[in-house]
Write a structure and sequence with these properties.
about 775 residues; 23 strands; elongated
């Protein structure tokens, strides 16, 4: 093909790609500053981190959450290279930042289709057919659904670019292609680190495949792979060094939660919840083992699946029958087996191989793999290679029958493939268009267009303005992101209110919804919600004496320890589903000191014993003093870890009261700093016959009090009038989830129980007690 013709076809491919992008992303392209797909959950959080950092941020440190400590923007999914660039412009608004992000994601779709087109042309596919297949492959990609939550992963272009430039280097050995890979990889890594990791593993598998499969002298093979190897290692080291120099935190968790749960399964490759065909199969059959989407999702589509299957069968038969005249598609002159090697390597990695084969111990020697919570995302290179291969196979069949003068059969294969592929894709397009269309009224809601009274006007009624506060506290409080601690339930709706108020008033949020957050900082933060007898180091670290703007979502009840924060606050009324308070840190500290004084007044008259004051209901303490663990928190002993997956630790008799009553259960555990695991309790209420009448769960991961790596499991729950005993079942799956257990307590929520040990240590309501008054 002449250069002029190639250029015209490339322009046509770009125009077609723009049209396809507008078709699927609609308002994200045509009205990019007016689309917010969702306000709650990961979607709302990722909008917030990007917007707050773009408008109010400085450098690489994100101050919009985890107040007063902040977080490195890379771990907040804030797309630092984009949000950082926007900081250079004065007066950037929310709509400006939204427009930039939505247009860049849209541009990535266009680039992905253009580069996929160029790959298909390189494999001999005719231009018009290549345009159609390039469009279908990218509109079907697993990353497409990332625009409903994880925008930093929604950029489609990195893998097609990586594939094309590696393909060009494979046949030309020109250095410019690895340079392009390096530049793209460095930029995209600071949109999301998974892109850098994907490039690193792609290069690793390509280098391995080239050394194994190419039949040239070893020296030539080594010479060929060295530039790519240098790119991969340099990219990895530069990113690691850059983050090390910009990140002062040294105690980030090293083993993410559920790293082997978010992997790719066979069902994720061959079935889809977003396909008309598979929906019909599910509706008509009782078969339930279908893909539900998720991190490991990598559906190839019916056409790609059957094209690959038939090609594999035909290739195997031809090889067995030794038909040299039947040219194989897979060859160094055609579709090099190296690409299949790369695809297979990425797929096995995405499946968690070999770690899922009862070989988790390998994580101790391959620590880099510990960092990836969602290994299933590494299936995306497999998706692109497999679907591109399938398109080449279909085109090969089409050309073969054209050459054999069987045009009806040739066009039937081609049109059937394009039609069935389009039918599969159509559900994707429909779903994404609906999400984006809903993003327009959601954007209006974000700007509070449906409120009768705006937030600034509302606060003015109480003689407050946004600048009178130092930060926002959202109740029920939530702290998610340190792997070991996941405090709070689903914060979607409260968070959607908090993020809007935060952006409107330029107020950071105390609550945390991020990833890889420092253990020590999280331990300090959560103690703010631990009630009157827990130390609150975060309050001592504040530089401002301004109050917090405390917003309590009215649909979610809070426990007495969180209500304690409201008691130190000025009530400002109810607005937009929230009880609103001005919460004063000095008042919280003063209340803590007042409670400490009341305990200190009693201690001189106490012997080493347990004393309950203010209530005479059923209460229970086990100090485990007769046990002999290597370490203990309080008293003379503690219980070593049990070897069972579950074990009844105590059955506590409950005196009948004739009414439902609020109790608190608590227990301390020493956890391991090498993983995310922690135990929990099943609390089973039994009637007089021993029948379970209710059951609750108390999770250590929701602990809000701690000391070093000791964490206090706790739960407030109602005990039914018919309850006569409470059975406490320790759940230790997969064991061991902890190292030592100590200090188990059950108490009425309004009771104050003081424990004094022989060495003078004191606990109040199972919190370690500080005798000194707290000062700021």
């Amino acid at each position: 093909m002449k250069k002029s013709q190639s250029l015209l076809w490339l322009i046509a491919a770009a125009v077609f790609a723009i049209g396809a992008t507008i078709l699927i992303l609609s308002y994200m392209v045509t009205d990019p500053g007016h689309v917010i797909i969702e306000l709650g959950g990961d979607c709302g959080k990722n909008y917030f981190t990007f917007l707050y950092h773009s408008i109010y941020g400085h450098g690489w440190w994100f101050e919009g959450m985890n107040y007063p400590y902040g977080e490195h923007i890379t771990y907040a999914d804030g797309q630092p290279i984009i949000s950082g660039a926007l900081q250079l412009f004065n007066g950037v608004t929310i709509r400006d930042a939204l427009m930039v992000m939505n247009l860049l994601i849209s541009l990535s779709y266009v680039l992905a289709m253009v580069f996929t087109y160029k790959i298909l042309i390189r494999f001999g596919v005719k231009p018009f057919i290549a345009i159609l297949f390039a469009c279908l492959i990218n509109l079907f990609a697993p990353q497409v659904y990332r625009i409903v939550a994880h925008f930093s992963l929604a950029y489609l272009c990195p893998i097609p670019m990586l594939f094309y430039w590696t393909l060009m280097y494979h046949y030309s050995s020109k250095w410019k292609w690895p340079v392009y890979i390096f530049i793209m990889g460095f930029i995209m890594s600071f949109i999301h680190l998974y892109t850098g990791a994907t490039i690193f593993f792609w290069i690793a598998f390509y280098v391995t495949g080239y050394l194994m499969l190419i039949k040239t002298p070893l020296r030539e093979r080594v010479k060929h792979v060295m530039p790519l190897l240098v790119v991969g290692v340099t990219l990895f080291l530069l990113i690691k060094i850059f983050i090390a120099f910009t990140d002062p935190i040294k105690d980030r968790p090293g083993f993410p939660l559920n790293s082997l749960e978010y992997v790719t399964h066979i069902k994720d490759i061959v079935s889809s919840p977003n396909s008309y065909f598979w929906q019909y199969i599910r509706y008509k059959t009782k078969f339930t083992k279908f893909s539900e989407g998720g991190e490991g999702y990598c559906y190839l589509g019916l056409v790609a699946f059957f094209a690959i299957l038939i090609s594999a069968i035909v290739g195997a038969v031809n090889k067995i029958r030794k038909r040299p005249g039947d040219e194989l598609l897979i060859s160094e002159q055609g579709f090099s087996p190296i690409w299949l090697f790369v695809a297979g390597g990425c797929l096995l990695l995405a499946m968690g191989v070999p770690f899922v084969w009862n070989m988790k111990w390998l994580f101790n020697y391959l620590s880099i793999f510990k960092q990836f919570r969602a290994m299933g995302r590494f299936s995306w290179p497999f998706y692109y290679i497999a679907t591109i291969y399938a398109a080449v196979v279909v085109h090969t069949w089409y050309q073969r029958y054209i050459a054999l003068h069987k045009p009806v059969l040739a066009y039937s294969i081609l049109l059937a493939s394009l039609g069935l592929w389009s039918l599969d894709v159509s559900r994707y397009i429909k779903n994404i268009r609906e999400h984006v269309a809903n993003g327009v009224p959601t954007c209006d809601k974000f700007f509070f267009k449906d409120e009768e009274i705006k937030w600034p006007e509302y606060l003015e009624q109480y003689h407050y303005k946004g600048s009178d506060f130092q930060a926002i506290i959202l109740l029920p409080i939530f702290f998610a992101g340190s792997e070991k601690l996941w405090v709070g339930g689903d914060p979607s709706w409260p968070w959607s209110i908090g993020m809007r108020v935060s952006l409107q008033f330029h107020l950071p949020v105390v609550d945390v919804m991020m990833s890889r957050t420092s253990w020590s900082i999280t331990e300090k933060q959560v103690k703010t919600a631990a009630g009157p007898f827990a130390d609150k180091p975060m309050l001592r670290d504040l530089e401002s004496k301004k109050p917090f703007l405390l917003l309590q979502y009215d649909d979610n009840p809070i426990d007495p320890d969180q209500a304690y924060l409201c008691n130190a606050s000025e009530y400002l009324g109810h607005h937009f589903s929230c009880y609103i308070y001005a919460c004063y840190p000095e008042r919280i500290i003063a209340n803590d000191n007042k409670n400490a004084d009341s305990i200190n007044a009693i201690l001189p008259y106490m012997h080493a014993a347990d004393t309950c004051i203010t209530d005479k209901g059923s209460w229970y303490i086990d100090h485990f003093d007769s046990k002999h663990a290597d370490e203990h928190l309080f008293g003379d002993g503690a219980a070593p870890v049990v070897s069972n997956d579950s074990l009844v630790i105590a059955t506590i008799p409950i005196k009948p009261t004739g009414e439902k009553r609020l109790y608190e259960f608590s227990c301390w555990f020493l956890l391991d700093n090498r993983d995310y695991r922690s135990p929990y309790f099943k609390l089973q209420s039994l009637d007089s016959t021993g029948k379970i009448i209710s059951q609750s769960r108390a999770f250590t991961k929701e602990s809000v009090d701690n000391k070093d790596l000791w964490f206090r499991t706790s739960l407030y729950f109602d005990i039914d009038p018919a309850c006569r005993s409470l059975r406490c079942v320790l759940m230790n799956e997969e064991h061991p989830t902890y190292k030592v257990m100590d200090e188990l307590m059950l108490r009425p929520a309004d009771a104050v129980i003081i424990s004094k040990s022989k060495d003078g240590g004191v606990m109040v309501n199972n919190h370690l007690f500080m005798r000194k008054r707290v000062a700021r």
